[in-house]
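Trying the structure run again after the queue cleared.
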Amino acid sequence: MIGENPIGLQNIAAYDGWAIAVTGILIVFAALLLISVFIAILPRTLAKLEFVLPQDSHPQTLPQEPSSVAPDSHGLVAIAAALRRRTEK
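Done. Tokens:
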């Protein structure tokens, strides 16, 4: 049973695989071509649409956390030392 089915290029040629392979290659090439054209046209399209969607002159920034909320490193060392002493007992 295993020896009946040829493996490799003979199997592709016997079952019309070359046409399917070439068709698949052409479809993938066309899709990649369309994607690259879209990427190339995008900056010009966005420049033309800027009057509809203007660029924000004052972008919003996230509020900064106050520095008093952040723990200092000495406090963290003291907490770690206390926890270690407690677990060693």
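Residues 1-54 form one domain. Worth checking whether this holds up in the mutant runs.
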